[in-house]
Design goal:
Length: about 70
């Protein structure tokens, strides 16, 4: 069985505190450039779970979400 994680893929765990807060692991903060005071976006899907996209993707996500173009059928 190959337990090696592919390059560019990461796995971390975090504990949820009493107030619902989590601490983003230091390595993750360093890799993705997350600093104190930064805002992160959490995306949730009932079936797929929670995702925290890279902060550089906010503008792309917002422009797609609030685009005046109607989705194609």
């Amino acid at each position: 069985m190959n337990n090696k994680i592919p390059k560019g893929k990461y796995v971390w765990s975090a504990t949820v505190g009493e107030k619902g807060q989590i601490v983003i692991p230091k390595q993750a903060r360093e890799i993705f450039g997350i600093n104190p005071g930064d805002t992160v976006l959490l995306l949730g899907d009932d079936k797929r779970g929670i995702a925290i996209p890279p902060k550089g993707s906010f503008s792309d996500l917002f422009s797609k979400a609030f685009s005046e173009n109607k989705p194609e059928d």
